[in-house]
Amino acid sequence: MRLSPTHIYSITALLSAGSYALPSPSTYPINTVQCTDSNAAVRKEWSALTPAERIDFTRSVKCLMNLPPKTPKEAAPGTTSRYDDFTAVHMNNTLLIHRNGPFLAWHRHFLRLFQKALTDECGFNGTLPYWNWPWWSDDLPSSPLFDGSATSLGGDGYYNTSMPALRNGNYTFPRGHGGGCIKAGPFANITTGFRNFKVEDALPATLPPDTLDYAPHCVTRDLNSVVSDPGHQPDVVHELITAPSIRAFQGVMDGSVRNTAHLSPHSAGHWSVGIGMQDQYASPSDPAFYLHHGMIDNMWAQWQLRDPETRTFALDGTVTTLNNPPSQNATVDWVVHFGWLDAPRRLGEIMDARGGGSCYRYEYEEGAEKPC
C-alpha cells in the first residue's frame, strides 16, 4: 500500500500530533532582489575562517545550548535547550528524511533554520561554515576542525577502553583513539538530553516509543581517519558534482557501500566522528553535524548550478526512509515538517539556495589545495 500524507504523518508520530498543533503549510518568502554571486551570502570552509570568526560560531552555538527550549517538554522530554530543539526535530523526522527524496531539501532548510537561530537569538555575525572532506580525510585529529584548540569544534573523545570496533556489514573498521566524552576545545564535555541509538539497530517503520525521552549523556567522539579517508577522496567529490542525474548524485552521496572498506561520503562523515555522529536520529547533538551537512549541501548546490534549469527542482525517491513502509514518490508539492522550528514547507519552497527566501553560495573550487 502506498501511503498518503495523512498516513505518513500518523505513523511517524510527528511533534504536531495530538494537542500540539503546528502552523499549516504556508508560502515561502519570495526573493525581492535577484540573488547573484555578488550579493549572495558566502559559506566558507572552516579553515578559511579567521580565528575570530571560528570563535564567533562556537560562541553562538554554545549560546543556543544555554537558551531554554521552545519545544514543549510534554512533546519531547529530552529537550533541555534551544540547541536540543533542533536535535528533537531531526530525531522526530528521521524516518522521513534519509535515503529518500526529501533528504537533500529537508536538511538544506534545517541548516538555514539553524543559521537563523544563531543569528537572531545569539548574535552570530557570520554564515554557516562547512567541512571540506578531502582536505582533512587522512588526519582528522590534526585538522583545524578537530584539533581540540580554542578555534576548533573541539577535539577527540577520551579513550574508552570498552568501545568496540566499527562494523559495517561483513567489514570491521579499526576503532579510533577516543570513544568517550569530548575532552578538549569549545565543546568539551557537552551533553545531550537524548539517548544514543546504536548504528546496528535496524531502522523501523515507526519511531520507537522512547525516541524523545530524557536520557542525558555526554556527546562522544572517536575520530577515525581509516573511515574518512577512502570515503572522502577528491575523486568521490568529483563523482558527486559530475553525476548525470539526481538519482546518480544521491546514489553516490548516500548509496550502498562501494566496497567493504569504503562508505559513501554521507556515511563516512558521520562514522568517522564516532558513535554520536553515527546515530541517525540524534547526530545533530554534535555541532560537527552542521559542518558535515554543509558540505553535503555544498555538493548538491554545485551539482544544481551546472544546469539550474533542469536540476534545481530535480527529485528522486519516495518519502520514507528506504521506502519503509512503501510510500509515494517525492514531488515539489510534498509537505515536510520542522516541529517548533518552522511551519511545514513544500519541498519546492526549500530546494533553491538562491531563491524562495534563500540567497547564499559556497566558497568552493574543486581540486583547490588545502591551506598550509
TrEMBL record:
Where are the coiled-coil regions?
none
In Pfam terms, one family for this protein is Tyrosinase
List, in alphabetical order, the Gene Ontology terms for molecular function in this entry.
metal ion binding; oxidoreductase activity
Q: Does the keyword Oxidoreductase apply?
A: yes
Q: Which UniProt keywords apply?
A: Metal-binding, Oxidoreductase, Signal
List each copy of the Tyrosinase copper-binding domain by range. Answer: 286-297
Signal peptide residue numbers? 1-21
Q: Which PROSITE patterns match?
A: TYROSINASE_2
Q: What is this protein called?
A: Di-copper centre-containing protein
**Annotated organism of origin:** Karstenula rhodostoma CBS 690.94
